[in-house]
Amino acid sequence: MPKSDRIVTDTNASFFGHPRGLATLFFTEMWERFSYYGMRALLILFMTAAVDKGGLGFDVGKAGVIYGLYTAGVYLMSLPGGWVADRIFGQRRAVLYGGILIALGQFSLGVHALPFFFLGLALLVVGTGLLKPNVSTMVGQLYGAEDKRRDAGFSIFYMGINLGAFFAPLACGYVGQRVNWNLGFVLAGVGMTLGLVQYVVGGKHLGEAGLHPVRPESPEAARKQKRSMEIAAVALVVVIGVPLLLSMAGMVEITAKFVGNAVGVLLIALTVGVFWWLLSSGEWTPVERKRFMATAVLFLAAALFWSAYEQAGSTLTLFADRSTDNRVLGHPYPSSWFQSLNSLFVILLAPLFAWVWIRLGKREPSSPAKFSLGLVLVGLGFVVVGIAALRTASGALVSPAWLTATYFLHTCGELSLSPVGLSAMTKLAPARVASLMMGVWFLSDAVGNYMGGRVASVYESFSTPVLFATVACFTIGLGVVLMLLVKPMKRLMGGVN
Ligand code: GLN
Questions:
Q1: Separation between Cα atoms, residue 442 and residue 92, nearest integer Å
Q2: Number of helical H runs and strand E runs in the chain
């Protein structure tokens, strides 16, 4: 076989019938998620552990706010991360820089000193914002416009995410909780480093993917781009500078609570701003406007879903640590291990869900119906852990079966809502703003993570049954409302499903 033929075969079908580059991106994202979820497995426990036990000794109020800020920040940074890659670096370099910052961030968390802790979180937020959206974009670039393997490629990639997320709490959780907290973070950083080495070595299989940022088409467009960058830079200086100046003047005290509240206001302003900006960009036909209303409803539903689902690393981990009898067949295990269950269930159940939707054929639920199902399921997960919490009133520990059931329901919710979420929002938006919808989707994750963190911050202010019941009421409530709205939503969506 001539050499050139062999290379074509090699890049086109050598990873489960997919381009070889998919393997490079699969393992990059697998290790990045290993790093992310390994760190997240420990974060709230480390912050709330007593100082003499090697922790930071924060109260839950503060730890919950920081958890929410960190996890929201990661998703929020995906917006500028995607933008910077599109316009300036190209995805290929953005992923490399992001990975380096992530590894440095984890190693910084490995140093037991408060400034290094906060520096580490900041590096992780910026690094993940650069890596996560862009590695996904590159997956799409591996396939030609007509290539039917694209969706399957993303499903394989999603398995990589969950493989990393499955092993991470087992490894980093064990080291962090049983050996040394900081070493747990270092292990997460080692994982990211392995991912980076693999990314650099495997880069040759990526072809042209991610190499070429979009150049402005005209001098006018270039000027506009420069202007947006200037506005962004000024906004950043104002957002960080003004509170700093106020604090130096003694007018405000910068505490976790202050930053938490400020970011809350910022997120609301950003959400309203993004939707308003989308609507004011270009002429919208009446049909487009109606569909746009539907995306706003789906956005709200997704944000509420994430706010409950992403408590995996906060309230549910606190409940695992404080109120669950962490033994299986008499053998004790670290409480952070519960965080592996979600990925385990995704790996086991994703093929089943795909099969069920196909089997249902014409009767497959519409996207709003799947969103509604997702919300109800995540809420039912909280009903289960709420009932478990009732049993801990006397100080007793409950069986791990309760949280296992909760994670099972949460995963079913995720598999209903998440795979259709982004594609529904993208299809509903007119083509001229379609690429921005990815950002809107990340924004729903950011808002959700933020809200989830606020819930975690009041973990000790309410009794756990009340707290979990409240989350259940909101999610199931909105799920039911959305169920009732399926018909009008379909009308709004005007033929898009
Ligand atoms: N578990 C998935 C990931 O880490 C999705 C999480 C989310 O969107 N909140 O990529």
A1: 20
A2: 19, 2
Cα-Cα-Cα-Cα dihedral sign, residues 488, 413, 39, 90: negative
DSSP string, 469-491: HHHHHHHHHHHHHHHHTHHHHHH
Single pTM value for the model: 0.91
- On the CB side of 186, how many CA atoms lie within 13 Å of its CA? 9
Q: Please give the CATH superfamily to which domain 256-497 belongs.
A: MFS general substrate transporter like domains (1.20.1250.20)
Distance CA 171, CA 47 (A): 19
Residue 313 Cα, ligand 1 centroid: separation in angstroms?
12
* d(CA 286, ligand 1 centre) in Å: 34
∠ Cα 341 343 345 (to 5°): 70
Cα→Cα distances 408→123, 260, 307, 353, 354, Å: 32, 31, 17, 13, 17
Beta bridge partners of 324: 398
The binding-site residues of ligand 1, defined as CB within 6 angstroms of any ligand atom, are 33, 161, 165, 306, 310, 445
Separation of 365 CA from ligand 1 center, angstroms?
22
Q: Going by CA atoms, what residue is nearest to atom 9 of ligand 1?
A: 445
Nearest atom (ligand 1) to Cα of 343:
1
Q: Each residue's pLDDT tens digit in the chain (497 positions)?
A: 344 333 333 456 678 888 999 999 999 999 999 999 999 999 999 999 999 999 999 999 999 999 999 999 999 998 888 888 888 888 999 999 999 999 999 999 999 999 999 999 999 999 999 999 899 889 988 888 788 888 888 889 999 999 999 999 999 999 999 999 999 999 999 999 999 999 999 988 888 888 888 777 788 888 887 888 888 888 888 888 887 888 888 887 888 888 888 889 989 998 998 888 888 877 788 888 888 888 889 999 999 999 999 999 999 999 999 999 999 999 999 999 999 999 999 999 999 998 998 899 888 888 899 999 999 999 999 999 999 999 998 889 999 999 999 999 999 999 999 888 877 877 887 777 776 788 888 999 999 999 999 999 999 999 999 999 999 999 999 999 999 998 888 888 877 76
Ligand 1 geometric centre to CA of 88 (Å): 26
121 C-alpha vs ligand 1 centroid, how far in Å?
Answer: 18
Atom of ligand 1 nearest to the CA of 132: 10
Work out which ligand 1 atom sits closest to the CA atom of 448: 9
Residue with tokens 């040759």: 204
Class of domain 1-215 as given by CATH:
mainly alpha
Report which ligand 1 atom has the smallest distance to the Cα of 306: 9
- Tell me where in the chain the CATH 1.20.1250.20 domain(s) lie: 1-215, 256-497
**CB-facing half-sphere around the CA of 223: CA atoms within 13 A:** 3
On whether the CB atoms of residues 72 and 447 are closer than 8 A, the answer is yes
